[in-house]
Amino acid sequence: MTRIYNFAPGPAALPQEVLTQAAAEMLDWHGSGLSVMEMSHRGREFMSILETAQRDLRELLAVPGDYRILFMQGGAIAQNAIVPMNLVGRKPQPATVDFINTGQWSIKSIAEARKYATVNVAASSEASKFSSIPPRETWRLTPDAAYVHVCTNETIGGVEYHFVPDVGDVPLVADMSSHILSRVIDVSKYDVIYGGAQKNIGPAGLTMVIVREDLLGHALSICPSAFDWKVVAENESMYNTPPTYSIYIAGLVFQWLKRQGGVAAIEQRNIAKASLLYDYLDSTDFYGNPVAKDCRSRMNVPFSLHDASLNDTFLAGAKEHGLLQLKGHKSVGGMRASIYNAMPIEGVRALVDYLKEFEKQNG
Amino acid sequence: MTRIYNFAPGPAALPQEVLTQAAAEMLDWHGSGLSVMEMSHRGREFMSILETAQRDLRELLAVPGDYRILFMQGGAIAQNAIVPMNLVGRKPQPATVDFINTGQWSIKSIAEARKYATVNVAASSEASKFSSIPPRETWRLTPDAAYVHVCTNETIGGVEYHFVPDVGDVPLVADMSSHILSRVIDVSKYDVIYGGAQKNIGPAGLTMVIVREDLLGHALSICPSAFDWKVVAENESMYNTPPTYSIYIAGLVFQWLKRQGGVAAIEQRNIAKASLLYDYLDSTDFYGNPVAKDCRSRMNVPFSLHDASLNDTFLAGAKEHGLLQLKGHKSVGGMRASIYNAMPIEGVRALVDYLKEFEKQNG
Q: What is the 3-state secondary structure (H, E, C) of chain A?
């Protein structure tokens, strides 16, 4: 069996320990005689898996007691509609929502929110081709907005917030899909945090929502019951049948993360991994990274070859070295290395070694 | 390792061959060096998995060329909102939709549709405690309805349509969650077929929608893009990241089903399994089944003990015999054996043997 280093932006690499355990338990979970996939979601066995996963996630992120953790479906793209359907009803209609536009994922969120609200793009880094985060003091926020939306890590552009914006009393909503659990965050500084699991946690088909309890109960009448956060919360994420196997895998990832020392410990490793790669990219003109240094993502590192005609040769060589999925998103071109929690530093070292070798041969 | 017979209503038993293959491929799918869970959904490997699954499902159900197969998320409960959001826009608002109420799943669909349409319950078997299907000639349909909705197998009540209702030119929408792929159907007689995968196919978190192409493109403006069938179809079920691992498992189940001889062959086995169980239940007064003989479900067999005070003893003894999840739904009480495609006839024989033994000891 050949294992490789997988730099895919999501779905993405999972810890090998997690996969090994999942394989071993596939036909018989803990002597139950059942696969997790075959368990009734309301049975004792799966309920314990769900509760443990929720408890571990709460512990890992130090989620305060007045926040609910919801396991849902549809990914961040579905939440782009579900968030406004749940929050704009707190204000007279049509409500205004503020967005900070920092890249492709912000743009998607903005477009979808227009179905349910008046959208104010309070700040945008589009003029700089999304290579930065607009400084907080430049944001033109609406005083009575239903909420302010930020995407705290842009997977495609490789731009990450390294600060928590103060937006006063207006609820702050953050799409954290691609860096959740990669760094310590103060959940109490946000009002809603959401993300698809398929980047930094694991299986596609699971969405996590962390929401302050007092924001529940304001869904628009046209919000499907399965996506009304209050209904989901009251039914302990069991209003519709949850994606049971994905929750099980996410739970194994949470346990793996605890064995790594938790989020603070993995953050240090993520800093080391990202520095290793950025330091090398900055040391040569053969490669380039377009993002301002104070907002570079530790998770998604876009880079370009000075001579773009070498792109295909670079990717073919990378594949030969077992370094996969380095092609950048079609909207920006070039390369991208996604180095989520599950990417070991050895993978980043192997990538840097290859970057050096390729430069030597082609520089 | 102990394997047991799992009569759960969903999530439910999977073919052991499928689980064995999934375990073997967990860390390295076909020499790719990747788990299916780690694959980019837009990569060559996963695309081939998705396309094969779609093609096999099309073949198994003989889906005509003018129908699209969509892989979505949220289960039948989400589709209860998604169906009207996609179909009522074909008519002037507010549109009327016709429902046939045959049990708990119909009731859920009806309640949710009221958010988006005027609902006409064209027929109901509530007066008979949902022990039958209202005969077609009693349905009071709305001539210009946006669609007629039926639940062709009520998982809780154990009531199944053994006929296709003719509703003229009005689109016929069927929730087939709990018996899809259990019997040959003429897809062309329906306009929309949907179902969660977690009953007769496998993994929770995957929803299948089969829709006639000309019904696409009428979603209400408030329909989230991720749930607009046209958007999903145009993006080949990739508008949001699909539940990749669930699609892979469903694909393995489709291949297993083809090895069994396809739907016509499995239908014969399902008839044999259901007959074995119903014949015994009918042969004694110790047990009872409330459902009219012409609409008994081959998939979900509710039954009661004449003396309900023996229920707990019955369930405890069943568990000792490796017969799990026989407790009926709380809304109807008693027992229920769900005997989906993946339940071998040996499991039904073991259940009937236990029924006999228990009767002998307690009759």
A: CCCCEECCCCCCCCCHHHHHHHHHCCCCCCCCCCCHHHCCCCCHHHHHHHHHHHHHHHHHHCCCCCEEEEEECCHHHHHHHHHHHHHHHHCCCCCEEEEEECCHHHHHHHHHHCCCCEEEEEEECHHHCCCCCCCHHHCCCCCCCCCEEEECEECCCCEECCCCCCCCCCCEEEECCCCCCCCCCCHHHCCEEEEECCCCCCCCCCEEEEEEHHHCCCCCCCCCHHHCHHHHHHCCCCCCCCCHHHHHHHHHHHHHHHHCCHHHHHHHHHHHHHHHHHHHHHCCCCEECCCCHHHECCCEEEEEECCHHHHHHHHHHHHHCCEECCECCCCCCCEEEECCCCCCHHHHHHHHHHHHHHHHHHC
Q: What's the CATH architecture for A29-259?
A: 3-Layer(aba) Sandwich (3.40)
ipTM over 0.90: yes
B14 CB neighbours in chain A (<8 A) are 35, 37-38
pTM for this model (two decimals): 0.97
CB contact under 8 A, A27 and B23: yes
pLDDT of A65: 98
The domain defined by B262-362 carries CATH number 3.90.1150.10: yes
pLDDT at res. B3? 58
B-contacting residues of A 10-39, CB under 8 Å?
A: 10-14, 16, 19-20, 22-24, 26-28, 31, 33-35, 37-39
